[in-house]
Specification:
The structure holds two protein chains of two kinds.
Chain A (H helix, E strand, L loop, with lengths): L1 H47 L2 H5 L6 E7 L6 H9 L6 E8 L5 H9 L2 E3 L14 E4 L6 E6 L4 H11 L4 E5 L3 E3 L3 H11 L4 E10 L4 E3 L2 E4 L6 H23 L10 E5 H6 L10 H15 L5 E12 L5 H21 L10 H16 L1 H17 L5 H28 L7 H34 L14 H10 L1
Parallel strand pairs in A: 1-2, 1-6, 2-5, 8-12
Antiparallel strand pairs in A: 3-4, 4-5, 6-11, 7-12, 8-11, 9-10
Helix pairs in contact in A: 1-7, 1-12, 1-13, 7-13, 7-14, 9-10, 10-11, 10-14, 12-14, 13-14
Chain B lengths: L3 H55 L5 H7 L6 H13 L6 H11 L1 H10 L1 H12 L16 H5 L1 H14 L4 H11 L5 H14 L5 H14 L5 H9 L18 H21 L9 H10 L6 H11 L5 H11 L4 H10 L9 H7 L5 H13 L2 H13 L3 H13 L2 H11 L1 H16 L4 H8 L4 H11 L5 H13 L3 H18 L6
Classes of the chains: A alpha/beta, B mainly alpha.
Chain lengths: 478, 505
Amino acid sequence: MHNIALQVLDYLNTIILIYFVATNVVYTVLMLLSLYAVSLHAKFARQKGYADISDSPVTPPVALIIPAYNEQDAIVQTVLSVLELNYPEKEVIVVDDGSTDGTIAQLVKQFQLTRMDLIYRPSLPAKLPTAFYYNPDRPELIVVSKPNGGKPDALNVGINLARSPYFCTVDADSLIERDALLRLIAPIVHSSLRTVVSGGVVRISNGCTLRDGRIAEIDLPKSWVERCQVVEYIRAFLFGRPGWNFLNATFIVSGAFCLMERDTAIQAGGFSTDTVTEDIDIIATIHQFMRENKRKYQMVFTTDPICWTEAPRTLSMLARQRRRWQLGLMQTVMKHNKMIFNPRFGMLGMVSMPFHAYIEAMGCVIEAFGTFLVPFSFIIGAMPLQLFLLIIFLAFGYGTLLSMGAVLLEETTLHRYPRLKHVLILMVYALLENFPYRQILAIIRAQGVFRYFGGMRKWEHVEHEGAAPRVAAARGQA
Amino acid sequence: MFLLEDLTALILWLLATVLVLNLVFLVFVFYRRAARNRYYRAKDAARERYRAVLSQFANGEITTDQAVEGLRGASGAAAQDAVQERLLASVDPSNIERVSELFFALGYVDRWARTAFGRSRAAQLKERSRRKEKAAISTGQSKSIWNSTRRAHLFSVPRALAVDHLGKLAPDFSQVFVAEALHDPSAQVRRVAVEAIGKNRHPAAIPLLLEELRKAIDEGNDVSLRTTKSALVCYNLEDLPHFLPFLSHPSRRVRFFVVDAIREIFIKTSRFTSISRANLSQEIRTAFLTKVTADTFADVRARGAAVISNFREPQATDALRKLLADENEFVRLHTVRVCNDPFYSDLLPDIVRCLADNKWRVREGAAQTLSAFGHRGANELYRYFIVAKDRYAAEQITEEIQRTGMIRTLLEELSGGGEEAGLAQDVCRKMTLMGKTTLLTQAVAANVAPEARILLMEALMEAPTQDFLNLLATLSKKDTGPVGAKAGSLLRQSAQGRSAPPSRG
């Protein structure tokens, strides 16, 4: 009996070892590709600039869609930030998804909107709007109110109202850098291949000072949970996604700031309520739609269009957010599982989808399990010291290299943290993020996976502090 | 066989490597910060040091030789960058030749050309450029076994940046370099070259850009359609004769993009100057009035309307009238949108007819154009609206009344009295019957002239909503003037109407 138990432990530990080796190999490849792509892109963009796009009459108009649900503390700053974007022709559509707070009142007051009875012509199914708010002196902004139907429903209403050939989804608690939309459209304008999706980088605004819808001063948040997230976002957006983009296998683009071709999104069926992460789902849906219809296309990810968003401040809020993300990822990979190892989908089907399904979606269960099993096996003597050290090294040690590398890449390319103190703090958190933050997240994410298999699909609400305190701080300083 | 002792050594090696690399990263951050500080300090110092010389040169107060003498000490990367930035910022059409000569004299052009084309080719091109040689512009890409390597971003990014700088020289100097860059195997370099052609507006390059456009449309081109079109749009009205032969191109999509580029050139020009017949050659006008309006491809006719609207002549009115009745909805749409010029007031009946179009975009365009015609157009719109049987056309007009702020004019007319007030009240009545009452109800509550509010209340009584009745109740209690009195009477009238037994029949 004892031998059988040891045998089982041996097998399980081997699986954990293989998982860590595979993960680190893929991440290393992505890191090398990203280093190459990001640094060259940054060099070119820094010197060449985007004046050719902002001055060109050929630059396509873009509709910025902001779905909002109870966002009274953040919405005005977000709308101000998108109205101030440096872009030749844009429309801003705020979709109030049945808010019960003062979201609409704040917007009406700030932008002097008047309620009107406007025409609504739906191309995508969604709950019907109940009111439109508009100011003839500010024709680029329209606010629409509708009964609560969830974020995908609100986004579909926005798409239905949009008149531009491209739309950009923006989270209601996000601030967009002034040139970010130009940077986001640049690959679409410059590419000879039809670009249906263009994604940008999301950064954490916690700790920053806001003024008139802009980040007036960049600073780091105070709590370790937020700081670990800052490092995590830098790693994900500078090391993970550019690597997949280089391989033409983009599978995840953050809905907080993402540009899409309107016609394609409509033909693919728009945002679906099948999953709790509509942004991941629509990317997979568009991939599937385009490949099945044998259309040539590309999805791109660029590292210089930056959107600042508010991250969860406490571990419990973070847990809610990550459980939802994991549940959504599971739902998406299972919904589109025919793409996995399907050569018709190229690198996406053969590499990216399997990686996201087996490593990103389900791998967290192995990681969470390993967090307990590996030390346990070692303590009871079922694992030799060398193997224990190897797994520990793969689980923690190698990760520090990736995180430190990401911080270094940020420092050499985007350079958004001006003070040396910030970079040194980020480097310290690049080490700490690998223990215990990563293990805690693995356990939380594993809960998300179990929820999927348990049939749960509830959206856990994440409370935000809103922009008000940081704006107030700015006024105080001014 | 793999032994555990080997594993220990491996782990230790890996651990040591990771630790060392992390340490290297940390040291690199310090190094990078220090280098950056040094660079910017040196750049600031250089800016300060050469400010006087550069501004004197930009203002034409000193010669190129004197400027070279004054800038002799600018040798480090920071100083060179500072001088380059300042010079590029000071470029305008009056001094671009002199600035370019200074770039030559200071060795910038040599450096850029070497980066873009290699040492041996650079010397030759530089000589040709100095002689302001006209380049034979063609698009064929050079054949080389190194092309796939040269396409890699690692090598193409520095070349593209160098071509970008070369493209900023005076057109006569940059032509040779840009023409050469068009043969580059990298799409990025070729794109930058195409953009530079547009910025410099070489007339000789128009056929080449149009060829690039054709390739992008028909065969697929590594330089995007939008980039090429952007470059074409940089040209001016006086360059248009070069576009004319392409209006008869056998490819309909090429014809479309050419007309569209011309349309954009007109729009761009009209932002700064008013375009009249005097700016345009007879050739252009004839081509558009005869050839484009009769093109077999609807998109060509549609885009042509915007160009024709700039002609402001009787033949243009006739052409636009014909296009307003075109069988294709996009032609009607684009035409109706561009008729918002007082010169084309003769087209008002034709535009009004578009309000009944079976395509909503055309109806919307017609409503927008009429509202842009001012008082006369608005009245046409109102008259049509009052009698309109078509629900969709009527809805489109209410949308326009609300979105463009015409409601304010309506309120003014209501308070003005007379025939106009009657028309305005009829419009409000029709809006009420259509259920578009939100804005009207808000106007009753707002602080506008009492006469207007009273007439509005009467209009809203055609189909009173609960919101309106609530407002009447509030007004009857709070307003002691004629508005309050009217509200009270309307409220009583409404109550009587509700309590009356339903008619049988």
